[in-house]
Structure formats: structure tokens, C-alpha cells
Amino acid sequence: MINPFSKLGISDDVVNAVKELGFENPTPIQEQAIPVLLEGSNDFVGLAQTGTGKTAAFGLPLLELIDFKSNKPQALILCPTRELCLQIANDIKNFSKNKPGASVVAVYGGANIMQQLREIRNGVQIVVATPGRMLDIIGRKAIDFSNVNYVVLDEADEMLNMGFQEDINDILSTTPEDKKTWLFSATMPPEVRRIAKNYMENPIELTMGTKNTGNANIEHEYYVVRARDKYAALKRIVDYNPDIFGVVFCKTKMDTQDVAEHLIKDGYNADALHGDLSQQQRDKVMKRFRERSMQLLIATDVAARGIDVNDVTHVINFALPDEIESYTHRSGRTARAGKTGTSICIINSKELGKIRQIEKIIGKKFTKADLPTGFDVCEKQLFGLIHRVHNVEVNEEQIDKYMSRINDEFADLSKEEVIKKFASLEFNRFLEYYQNAPDLNISADERERGERGERRERGERGERGGRGAEAGYARLFINVGSVDDFTRGDLLSFVCNHGRISGKAVGKIDLKGVFSFVEVESATAETLLANFKDVQYNGREVRIEVSGEPARSGSRDGRRSGDRGGFGGDRRREGGGYRGGDRRSSGGSGRRSNGGSEGGFRDFSGRSREERSSGRREGGSDRRRRS
Ligand code: AMP
Q1: Which domain holds residue 129?
Q2: By mean pLDDT, which of 296-300, 395-399, 449-453, 460-464 is the weakest?
Q3: Is residue 186 included in any domain, yes or no?
């Protein structure tokens, strides 16, 4: 039988190499793109998600088009991140392992440039690079691109998102006019279109699935919870999926760190990946995740770019992305290479509109799911445990010498009793923790209220339209906004905390870029302005003033700067933090135990288990509802 890759026109030495990698059949993108690219005579635009087999789609044809007798760079592949750069270079090295003389170099920042220069000097046909480091090397006149016949722009939308437009222009200007450009992108915003228009001549365009459509193997679900319950909801989802291997996305580095720290304290096997970590720390975290010695990777969008880990079962949007398009990139971390996966959004009722927008972009409907009850979790965990016990590999030689003593210990118990006790060992902790667990799902009533609030914030009712404040409210200017990673909820908490006012007094919040407007009941505005003294955020003095009046600033109020209350609660109230919980390993699968869980600590809402189970809420619930 003819190998399907041979049928597409790939030569035997490359076919043998991909066979060794376990590629039996081409993926849809490979099937469509390989014959076109093998012609080598056209520019090309491929609209495709990550994880679809893009690298081989362009990598295999490149290997057929390159003259490996020459040691001059003939192909340049530009991509947004170091991780992706290494991944692509590695894949192409594997594909070309049977091609004598083939040489691929990875050029990326944060690594020793001398080594990269040396490899280039030694002769190389394929250069895989991130734009910044590539420009640096071009600036040193250390590379000659006059023989480059093919330029691949991989994840073009991400490169533009990351601000590489200028760098790409400069790099492309050093390559020959008549080279062919192959562009791959998961989305096609106008900026990417512009690249296609400016740098390509009648490109052949292939769309895998419909435009901007997400991977068909991904199920999209959303859960509606109160903002203060988001963290508890996250844990419940994880507990309900004992074998989860997932990426949790947060909006800011700080949130990422916070969620990871809470999960770790609660006994989960998690870690954070964000831009404040050194390259070495990031590599370490990624290594642990790749090796699956960690179950949950908590990441920002930027840090997660280029993560190429197969078998991710879930992507969890702890916070929805600001840029709706980023959702496609996030969810593309699961269901790679033909597998299936689930992308989950934990939202509050005001965010339903965003879900509808995402649905339009991905061309797929979300399923509204209900958070499992405590009982559901216990049942799921119990049978997870039973399956693990059933499937555990027994080391006969080692255990044999203990068997007679073990049997003695159990001599007074029947087989049924022994089973019951083993099952209870793990199960009891979940049972104890979840027996009073509240229903985290938001009621239809609350949802309706939230949607009304969302419409009001979008100004759909128009009652507070224009620039003026609503009657009885003062419109205040504040010099922080979305560029500081504030959401409306964050800003509400920030203003209330520092102004020492109740959230009930706050009306419309108009979040802008570097500044915002907050409407506060006139009677309370004075209190707020009097208390809001010497407030700093990220080392910057924060000013609040009645819109149109001069700035106020003054003496210390004794509070720490940057107190964002970002999870919908006053973080200073977190108090004692984790208060116990059994963090022993659950054995068997080596996964984390979940001793602490929701009840064992003060969660982001600042409420203890006792307070929550008694249904009591701390003050400012109105404020939290808004956030
Ligand atoms: P990519 O989109 O190129 O990052 O590929 C995603 C994953 O799919 C990688 O782990 C590849 O090794 C794998 N892959 C690519 N093509 C095939 C194929 N034809 N058969 C099986 N796995 C593949």
C-alpha cells in the first residue's frame, strides 16, 4: 500500500522519518497544503488553528524544495515565541533526519547569541527565528539571506499582537524580492490581511474549516457563578475531573500567581507561568507540565503562547480574555493532533454577552453547564479512586514479603469490610469537605439582574448617556484604567477600599484606557475624596477628582498600594489563609490530594466555610455582585 504522505508527493526519506514519529495519515491541513506548497511557485495563506499539524504542512514541502548540497540559508521561518521556535526547529530536524547535510538552526532571544552565530557560520539551510533576535543577527551582518527562496510567517496574528510588525518588515526587506511567502494564522484580523496584501502576490488561500472557526474537537462550556465564587467553582470543576491535565488562563500576572498559590496551598498540583518569571523558571515550569508531574498550569495569554503540549484535557478561562480573538488561541491548547478536549469559561452573569460574541467568532455554540453538586463530586471521586485501585500495577516481588503481615492485620475483617475501608480512606475527606458545600450555580433571578447590569454598563438603556452623571451622583475622574489591567470590578473594589465607602454608593463605571470615570452618590463622594489620600498603584500616584476639578492628594491613609481586590473581594480579609487540610499525596496515580478544598481556608470572598455554610455573607455583598 502506498504511504499517504508519498501520495501527496513527499519523498521516501522524509516519509520514513515521519512514520517513525507515528504520523500514519496526513492531517486535513497537511492533505490540502502539501500539494500546493510542493509546487513552490506561489505565495500562500493558510488559516488554521494551532495543533492541527501546521508545522509538517509547511515543513515537509520545504524539505523537498531545498538544495541540501548548498550550505546557504534558503528558508526562513518566523514565529512569535521562543517555545514555538524551538518546537518548529525540533520538528523540522526530525523530519529531515534522513536528509544528508540538512541543517536547521533555531534563533531566539534569551539564549546565548554566540552559539547561534556559530551555528549560522557553520552553514545552515533552514533558519527558524523569533523576530527580535533575528533582527539582532541581521544587524551584526552575520547572516546572508540573498538565497532565501521561502519565508514562512507562522502564527502571524500572534506576531502582530506582540508588536513584531516593524521587525517583520525589516527582516523581510533583507530577503530577495522573488521569494515565496507562506503565511499561517489562526485568525485573520485586518492587520494580517494587510501583510498578505503588502507582501504577497495572488496568494493561494486555504481555510481549514470555516474562517476563524475553532477546532471541531473542542467542546465549549460555560458556568455562571457569582464573581466571589469563581475560585470555588474552579476547584469544583477540577475535583469533578480527577484526571484533568489543564491550562487555566487568568488575565494578569498577579491573578495567575494568586490562583496558583491558592491551588498549591489547597493541595493541588499546580504552578504559575507568567512574564515575571525568568526564562529559567519558565523552562522549569514547562518541563514539569510537559512531563505531567503537574496537573494544572495557570498562565497568562502571553506566557502561554506557543505552549505545545499534547493531551491537554481542559482549558479553563478563569477570566475571559479582553481580546475575544485570544479565546481561539487559548482553547487551541487542547484537542491537539486530532484529540478531543474541553474549553471552559467561568463567568459571572454580566459576561454572557461576551460568550455570545465568542460563539460568533468560533462558529460554535457553548453549552451552559451546571457546576456539579458536592454529592456529584464525591461520587466521581469515589469511582475515580475505585478505578485507580483496580488498575494499579502491583509490584509482586516487593509486596509479597509483606502479604502475610497485611493479611494478619485484616484477619478480623471480611473482604467487603476491607474494600469499604480502602474506599473510605480517600472518600471521607471529600465527603467531609463537600457535605455542606453550597450550590455555586447562580439562580435565574440573579442572572437576569446581572444581564440588566451589563446592558446598563454598555449604556443600552441610555438613561445615563452622555458625559454627565445621573441625578444625585457625582462623576469622578481617576487616573487608572484598563491599561493597568483593571476590570470594572477591580476598579470598584479599588475605589471602595481606598475611599472607604460601600459599593452600594457607586453607580456607573466608565473604564477607559489610562483613566476612568466612576459615578458615586453625591452624598458619599465627599467621604471618598477625603479618604482617598496618598494612594499608589504600581508605583504611580493615583488621583481621583470630581470630573473637571483640580486633583486632590494628601497624607497617608496607612494602606498598602495596589490593593486591587481583583477576585471580587477585599484581599486584606483573606486573613489566616489556608487553615489546614490534608496535603498527603493521594497515592496511586501520584496526583495531588485535595484535603483542603473549598472549606479549609478563607477563599477569595474572604468567607470561612462556617460563614458560607451558614449562608452568612460579609458586608459589601452588593459591591461583590457587581465585580
Ligand atoms: P502542530 O500543529 O504542527 O504543532 O502539530 C500538533 C501536533 O500534532 C504535534 O505534536 C505533531 O507532532 C502532531 N502531528 C502533526 N501531524 C501529524 C500527523 N499527520 N499524524 C499524527 N500526528 C501529527
Answers
A1: 4-207
A2: 460-464
A3: yes
Q: How do residues 544-579 score in pLDDT, each as one tens digit?
A: 888 753 333 333 232 222 322 223 332 222 222 222
Task: Enter the C-alpha cell of residue 102.
Answer: 540538512
Which atom of ligand 1 is found nearest the CA of 59?
Answer: 3
Mean of all residue pLDDT scores within the chain: 79
Inside any domain, residue 250? no
Q: How many angstroms separate the alpha carbon of residue 51 from the centre of ligand 1?
A: 6
Of 150, 179, 207, the position where a domain reaches its end is 207
The protein residue with its alpha carbon nearest to ligand 1, atom 5, reads 53
Instruction: Quote the CA–CA distance of 555 and 157 in Å, as a whole number.
Output: 47
Within a domain: 338: no
Question: Mind listing the pLDDT tens digit for each residue in 511-526?
Answer: 776 678 899 988 899 8
Ligand 1, atom 1, lies closest to the CA of 53
CATH code of residue 159: 3.40.50.300
Q: What spacing in Å lies between the alpha carbon of 163 and ligand 1's midpoint?
A: 28
- Enumerate residues lining ligand 1, CB below 6 A: 22-23, 26-27, 30, 50-56, 308, 310, 336-337
Residues 6+ apart with CB under 8 A from 328: 49, 186, 187, 212, 214, 361, 362
CA 33 to ligand 1 centroid distance, Å: 14
Instruction: Choose the final residue of a domain: 177, 207, 237.
Output: 207
The predicted model gives 437-447 an average pLDDT of 72
Which of 308, 311, 312 should be mutated for ligand 1, with most atoms under 8 A from CB?
308
Residue 162 in domain: yes
Phi, psi angle pair for 617, to nearest 5°: -120, 150
Does 597 score more than 50 pLDDT? Answer: no
Task: Kindly state the cell numbers that stand for 326.
Answer: 485570544
Number of domains in the chain: 2
Cβ neighbours around 138 below 10 Å, total: 18
pLDDT higher than 50, residue 618: no
Q: pTM of whole model > 0.70?
A: no
**CB-based contact 151:98 (threshold 8 Å):** no
